Amino acid sequence: MTDLNWTACYLILVNIAAFAAFGIDKRKAVRHKYRIPEATLLGLALIGGAAGALAGMHLFHHKTRKPLFRAIPVLLAAQIVLLLFF
After folding, report:
1. What residues contact 58, with CB distance under 8 A and at least 6 apart?
2. Residue 68 CB: number of other CB atoms within 10 A?
């Protein structure tokens, strides 16, 4: 596999993980169960899963009012720029 293929696979997997984490955390919040730490959700977005995190936030209506999570679109833009230039 080429470097581009590895990068694409990595980004797909981390975005799926971020999306799923937001969905699971929302479900746990509704059921008053043990939650996924915010640091984990933000960490997944930070390591390349910002698109999945943003999609999960909007689809599941989860963490959309938290100020720290409002930075995810900026993080996504930065990741796109990095991907285009490297």
Report:
1. 64
2. 10
